[in-house]
Design brief:
endosome; PH-domain like; Endo/exonu/phosph_ase_sf; 27 strands; about 775 residues; 5 domains; OCRL1/INPP5B_INPP5c; inositol phosphate phosphatase activity; 24 helices; seven-stranded antiparallel sheet; alpha+beta; Deoxyribonuclease I, Chain A; IPPc
Length: about 775
């Protein structure tokens, strides 16, 4: 491709799906009849799955500048009936006639002689040779027939629209066609015939409210534009900074802020709440214009916590308008200037761990994504004074070069495929409360653009990107962005007619199709599986049949789930078009004591046969999943024990060597000696107490603990008489450590009332802190013993 045409080929490529590759184009082509036609045409050679087709495009300009300048005039598959030739033009040394024939079709074009025509003709001839060695399956062309001019649709070429329906080979065996799957697929191909593009306005906003209650109207922020948006996506961070909100993940502030949001919606329209997601002081609310609400479908959301304080909430939704799958992400990444690598990792964790439990499952699978929140990226290598000076001079471009997010994006470390609009507003953090003055406190933090909005996907156009300086109740300023998003709207009459025509054709051929898939491996083996170190393997499911194949992993008889608890399948269900493949990931995470892992998975094909896949691997011993009694009987790291030594310790047949496991002693001792710099050790200690084979407070005593929670003597009696000796030693050891921490409460901010809440979960074997009776009972015992 000539370099001068690279921008044009990019525009032409946007007319097709990503898997349909534009191999070559020829510009400034004229149709030939009795006179030369002055229409600007482009010939495009397109490849999909080793099959080729020649597209004739009409351009509104001699050189198109956007996809809207192009429309499809003719589509010709390059098969056994296709041929091309050239003829000279009398009295012309600069142009020739390029002739294309296929069945009853003959097209003639006037093209200029030169390198461009030579290269294009060579690519067409090569594609013809390749097509002779591949099955002529042109299902992918059917969706473009509906976009052609009416004249061409009514011609012999229009007969190609039956390509996916006409029998190309009879499948072996006899099974009824999957009607629903086939109908969905055919309707998808014919979308251009019954839909038209419309633009919807989306308002995306983010605000870190610094724990402040709502006290001012949000209309200056949410009603900034004259026209009402079709949809709002509003994200908050730090709604409540109290200890109770962090510990119990519950706060009345959520309802208060949501009330102000609903009252702050644009007065020229009525809105309804679509989804509300929250996580530890964060909130993401989605509201839609009431007239669109009946068309909303497939709404789901998920939340992911990263590290100790990293937080994120996300939602996805769809419309019955045939819109691409959309998602919004509200996140609050790690703070402080030097923690940019932690922020990068938080971003990666969010993408890796998000699971909507329905298609699309992951963030990356959505065609349109809006990413918003307090990303916490700061200005680097400049002092506070220098930053304020550049802001005062309005030299924002110099500041943006020192912006960590821009730097990390350029290096490919974060949000690589996302776009952010030009920032023309001053930094949104940090301000003195109720002012527009940057931080004048003792810390005097440098101003920074911590609050950002980015997006990814086709059909999204940013109209505005701004901050709102008149909102002063927080140390952050809210940010908003107005987008125009392309959505396909259905014409009901055209849809009904096409739907009826497809049903008639399917009635005729429904017994001629059978879903068929192949799997590249049916035995999945893992390397040595270690505690909480995920391992991933992939299998490839290929659709070798003539119709879409819907697959799903189903549970076996007498089992409650389709796979074991230690296994995660992504995706566990889906649909594969003919000739395409799907990559399925098997992720193993070990959190219990197992010698090996083994499972037989049932891959069910809707309308077809089941397949069986085995998953296996050996597991490494770990002190994290061992019993307290066993660990007190060993004097070396667990991996250095022989099988016989470990068997004796596990069965309590060897002598007790320590009053508490040496692993606990080592971690507590490290925390005591180096307090303040050992976050990883602290997290390891909590993990250790959470995943022991039997909890410090045995399960059978939980109800007794609840009953005794209000009486000191009863609590003491339970610990001294009911709890096993080794467990009691561990319990008291942890309590003494907490008691030691409480002596320095002025320095570390902990006290005898809050410390037990951090460890009660681990000692009770409950892995999530909740406002529950069990937590309250065990917390009472911990607080009594440690005070």
């Amino acid at each position: 491709m000539l370099a001068v045409h690279q921008d044009v080929i990019n525009i032409v490529q946007a007319k097709f799906l990503s898997a349909e590759i534009v191999k070559s184009i020829h510009l400034n082509v004229s149709a030939l009849d009795e006179t030369y036609n002055d229409d600007n045409r482009i010939l495009a050679l397109v490849e999909y799955n080793k099959t080729f087709a020649l597209f004739v495009l009409i351009s509104a300009r001699k050189k198109p500048i956007s996809i809207s300048d192009l429309c499809i005039e003719t589509v010709i598959p390059i098969d056994e009936y296709f041929s091309c030739d050239t003829e000279p033009i009398e009295e012309s040394q600069s142009h020739i006639i390029f002739i294309i024939t296929s069945k009853k079709i003959k097209l003639q074009f006037k093209i200029e002689i030169g390198i461009e025509s030579s290269n294009f003709a060579s690519e067409v001839i090569r594609s013809k040779e390749v097509s002779l060695y591949n099955p002529p399956v042109f299902v992918w062309l059917d969706k473009y027939i509906g976009t052609m001019s009416q004249l061409n649709r009514n011609s012999d070429l229009g007969e190609q629209s039956d390509t996916p329906i006409i029998r190309q080979r009879i499948t072996q065996g006899t099974t009824a066609i999957n009607r629903e799957s086939m109908l969905k697929y055919q309707l998808k191909l014919k979308e251009p015939e019954f839909t038209e593009k419309q633009e919807f306005t989306i308002f995306v906003g983010t605000w870190n409210v610094n724990g402040q209650p709502p006290s001012v109207s949000l209309r200056p922020w949410l009603c900034y534009d004259e026209s009402p948006p079709d949809l709002y996506a509003i994200g908050f961070q730090e709604i409540d900074l109290s200890k109770e909100a962090f510990l119990f993940n519950d706060t009345p502030r959520e309802a208060e802020w949501q009330k102000y949001v609903m009252e702050g919606m644009h007065p020229k329209a009525k809105y309804r709440l679509v989804a509300l997601a929250r996580l530890v002081g964060m909130q993401l609310a989605v509201m839609i214009n009431s007239q669109h609400y009946p068309y909303v479908k497939n709404v789901s959301y998920d939340t992911v916590g990263t590290g100790l304080l990293g937080k994120m909430a996300v939602w996805q939704f769809g419309w019955s308008y045939i819109t691409p799958p959309s998602a919004s992400v509200n996140c609050h990444l790690a703070a402080h200037v030097e923690e940019f690598e932690r922020r990068n990792q938080d971003y990666k964790d969010i993408n890796a761990r998000m699971n909507f439990k329905r298609n699309p499952i992951a963030i990356k699978d959505h065609e349109q994504v809006y990413w918003l929140g307090d990303l916490n990226y700061r200005i680097t290598d400049l002092t506070t004074s220098q930053v304020k000076t550049l802001v005062a001079r309005k030299e924002l471009n110099k500041l943006l070069k020192a912006d960590q997010l821009n730097q990390q994006k350029e290096r490919g470390n974060v949000l690589l495929d996302y776009t952010e609009g030009d920032i023309k507003f001053q930094p949104t953090y940090k301000y003195d409360l109720n002012t527009d003055i940057f931080d004048t406190s003792e810390k005097a933090r440098p101003p920074a653009w911590t609050d950002r909005i980015l997006w990814r996907g086709k059909g999204i156009y940013q109209v505005e990107y701004r901050s709102h300086m008149d909102m002063r109740i927080s140390d952050h300023k809210p940010v908003s962005s107005l987008f125009k998003s392309e959505i396909s709207v259905v014409d009901p009459l055209k849809f009904r007619k096409i739907h009826e025509d497809l049903l008639k054709k399917m009635d005729k051929y429904e017994n001629e199709y059978l879903p068929q898939v192949t799997v590249d491996q049916t035995e999945v083996k893992y390397d040595l599986v270690k505690f909480r170190e995920p391992q991933t393997r992939e299998i490839i499911i290929a659709n070798t049949g003539m119709v879409p194949a819907e697959f799903e992993f189903i549970k076996k008889l007498d089992e409650t789930s389709y796979c074991k608890d230690w296994l995660r399948i992504i995706p566990y269900c889906g649909s594969i078009n003919p000739g395409e493949t799907c990559e399925v990931k098997f992720e193993v995470t070990l959190e219990t004591s197992l010698q090996n892992i083994y499972d037989i998975l049932v891959l069910h094909l809707k309308g077809g046969k089941d397949m069986f896949i085995t998953v296996s691997g050996d597991c490494q011993r770990s002190c994290f999943t061992s019993s307290i009694a066993a660990l007190c009987r060993i004097n070396v790291p667990i991996m250095q024990l022989s099988e016989e030594e470990w068997r004796l310790a596990e069965n309590n047949e060897s002598g007790v060597l320590y009053s508490v496991p040496r692993e606990i002693w080592l971690m507590v001792d490290h925390l005591y000696r180096y307090a303040g710099t050992v976050q990883a050790v602290a997290e390891s200690l909590l993990l250790f107490l959470s995943y022991t084979k039997d909890p410090v407070i045995p399960f059978e005593l939980h109800d007794t603990c609840i009953a005794a929670a209000s009486n000191f003597q009863n609590c003491r009696q339970i610990i001294l008489q009911r709890v096993p000796d080794l467990h009691r030693n561990v319990f008291l050891y942890i309590c003494m450590f907490l008691q030691e921490l409480s002596k320095y409460s002025n320095d570390n901010g902990y006290d005898a009332r809050t410390l037990p809440l951090y460890s009660v979960t681990s000692c009770s074997g409950i892995r999530y802190v909740t406002r529950s009776r069990k937590t309250a009972g065990a917390s009472r015992i911990l607080s009594i013993i440690s005070s």
